[in-house]
Fold this sequence. Notes:
This protein is mainly β. The chain has a domain at 12-83: Roll (SH3 type barrels), CATH 2.30.30. It contains no helices and eleven strands.
Amino acid sequence: MLKKFKIKKGDNVIVIAGKEKGKKGEVAQVFYKSDRVLVNGVNIVKKHKKSQSENKKPNITEEPAPIHISNVLYFCDKCNKGVRLRVEEKDGQKVRVCKNIKCGAIIK
């Protein structure tokens, strides 16, 4: 059975814990089995690539690494801060809503 998260691919999130705290980015991928998300521009690590053939040279590339989903919050543009989300039913459809009392904005 697959876990359900309120953070989806394409959401803007802010990191709330760890060495990357305070950075914002867009979710590129959600890893459901390991409870992690891949955020563009956050948790950049260097990978040492070995040469695969004579034509390809070995090099060092920088790419984002997954971060645990508990360390990110959805970034609400209306509130201008990281917020929790709740699911409500509006017009027979389930929608995600900002949990901030003053805001209550509906998220796509």
